[in-house]
């Protein structure tokens, strides 16, 4: 269902929702349920999220409501976001990038940085 928003007003949400799939949860099939994490992620857009085969969910980068680009990494654990501090420098800040998971690895590619399109 689409809603019309004023184009000059930037509204970025930080809501998290579950959708009940048949046979995969205790939710009723085809029901949405909002989740209110005790420590919600900053509201953002243009970020990426991936799920690893073991079920862990990771969120990377994006842009906040003040147009600040980010390159942080968080893991969703029991409906709480936990920041992950890498052992080395993370990729440059970005939004609208692509991400995917393969085995126990998360890949990040492209998107837009402070100077425009990235091709790393």
Description:
The chain has 120 residues and is mainly β. The protein has a domain at 39-117. 0% of the residues lie in helices and 39% in strands. The protein contains no helices and ten strands. The chain has strands at 16-19, 32-35, 48-51, 57-63, 69-77, 80-84, 98-102, 105-109, 112-113, 116-117. The strands form four sheets. A four-stranded antiparallel sheet has the order 3-4-5-6, with no helix packed on it. Residues 1-9 have low confidence and may be disordered.
Summarize it.
This protein has no helices and ten strands. With 120 residues, it is mainly β.
Keywords:
120 residues; 4-stranded antiparallel sheet
Distance N terminus to C terminus? 35 Å
Largest sheet: 4 strands, antiparallel
The helix/strand series, from N terminus to C terminus, equals EEEEEEEEEE
How would you state the average pLDDT, rounded? Answer: 81
Beta-strand content bin: 35-45%
Q: Could you give the count of β-strands? A: 10
Major sheet: order of its strands?
A: 3-4-5-6
Shape annotation: globular
Using only C-alpha atoms, the radius of gyration works out to 16 Å
Helix content: under 10%
Low-confidence stretches: 1-9
Structural class: mainly beta
Q: Count of helices?
A: 0
Give the helix/strand layout.
Blueprint: E1 16-19, E2 32-35, E3 48-51, E4 57-63, E5 69-77, E6 80-84, E7 98-102, E8 105-109, E9 112-113, E10 116-117
Antiparallel strand pairs: 1-2, 3-4, 4-5, 5-6, 7-8, 9-10
């Amino acid at each position: 269902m689409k809603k019309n928003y004023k184009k000059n007003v930037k509204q970025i949400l930080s809501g998290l929702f579950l959708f009940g799939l048949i046979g995969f949860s205790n939710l009723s099939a085809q029901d949405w349920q909002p989740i209110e994490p005790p420590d919600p992620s900053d509201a953002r857009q243009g970020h990426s999220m991936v799920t690893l085969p073991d079920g862990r969910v990771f969120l990377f980068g994006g842009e906040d409501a003040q147009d600040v680009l980010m390159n942080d990494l968080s893991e969703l654990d029991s409906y709480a976001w936990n920041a992950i501090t890498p052992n080395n420098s993370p990729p440059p800040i970005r939004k609208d990038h692509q991400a995917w998971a393969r085995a126990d690895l998360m890949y990040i590619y492209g998107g837009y940085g402070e100077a425009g399109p990235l091709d790393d």
